[in-house]
Design brief:
The protein has about 425 residues and is an alpha/beta fold. It is about 40% helix and about 10% strand. It is built from 14 helices and 13 strands. A seven-stranded mixed β-sheet has the order 2-8-7-6-5-3-4, sandwiched between helices. α3 packs antiparallel against α11 and α6 runs parallel beside α7.
Amino acid sequence: MDRLKKIAKNLDSKDNLSKFREKFNLPKDKIYLDGNSLGVLAKDIIDEINHTIKEEWGNNLISSWNKSWIKLPRMISQKIASIIKSGEDEVYVGSSTSINLFKLIKSILQSNKSIKNITTDNLNFPSDKYICELVAKDFNIDFNFLEYGSDLIADIEKLKEFIIKKRGIIVLSHVAYKSSYRYPIKEISKFCRDNNTVVIWDLSHSIGAVNIDMGLNQVDYAVGCTYKYLNGGPGSPAFIYVREQKLRKLKSPIRGWFSHNRPFEYSDEYNESNSIEKFSNGTPHILSLSTLKTSLDITIEATTKELNIKSAKLFDYFGSIYINELKKLNFELLTPMDKSKRGSHIAISHKEAWRISKCLINPIDNDKLSIIIDFRPKNIIRIALTPLYTSFEDIYSMSRRLINIVNEEEYKHKDYSMKGVT
């Protein structure tokens, strides 16, 4: 492993993105490899949020609406638009991913009464499935759940057959939350368009680490969160993307003050905005939005193209350790080796994955660093490759711990109880 450590140090010394690591408040007593669940706090966010609280709210009070707050949602939306390479007026930021998915599906159904099916698959995040089921029930149309025989990798031909059979709306996660499998977004978007099907992409597990181009990929609709690779903080607001040509015929199912065409006329008659702001509802969440000003600027400066390149290099380095060391210890790599077919986290399995995870997070020996990963059933350890702040030496240290935990049977000191968020 000493040779591998030297390789990691050499790769870190040549890393074009290494300067961004200093922008984050990384803990000194642990290695953080869970950025695909919650991104790390950027140092400048502390000053930004303090300014919002102490000056804008504390000192300027309501005058801050005119001075800065009223423009904040549009500013953040434009930053996200630049990250996903879409038009500035095609992105709305606010609410949660689930609420935005709910609004988007219902608005599409209201605009097209001929749709009789809503579909998702077993690679999607469960909450997306819950929303699809609920909306299908509300509209008295069919909900369809496509299972591939595996909850790790999509069968594209089976997916295409299903789309032809169940034309309507299909909701897919661009990157699967368990395995990190990535769909061929351009191919599927075109196939859906050619087969009278609306596809909504959930970008939560890809935005900020995967290079996404909404125009090039011919995407019409998408949702996503901002607290994973975009580092917006716990509960930071999600977004809706709608291609401009599709926007005009949609009407939001939830009316609100800020979705009114002229909210400050305080009209008793509701006139919906003609812009993407129609998906806004109540007052914007200013404190949550304020964290994104800084975090998104870091991603924009780094560029998702460079982030994507580093993610692939991090994976390749881990892949060499897996092939030479971890595979012999009965770890199985679940994430595709082909970089075009994966996102920016690694999924490995082991029959003792849960207890191994507990050893990583809470070592028996207090002299060992805590390494934060997460566990997903069944027996999956997820390792985030967050290119802005993950180093090659982080991956080396985590891999070395995996080897030692198994070789020394350290996991036998842990029980099988499961509590809390993992």
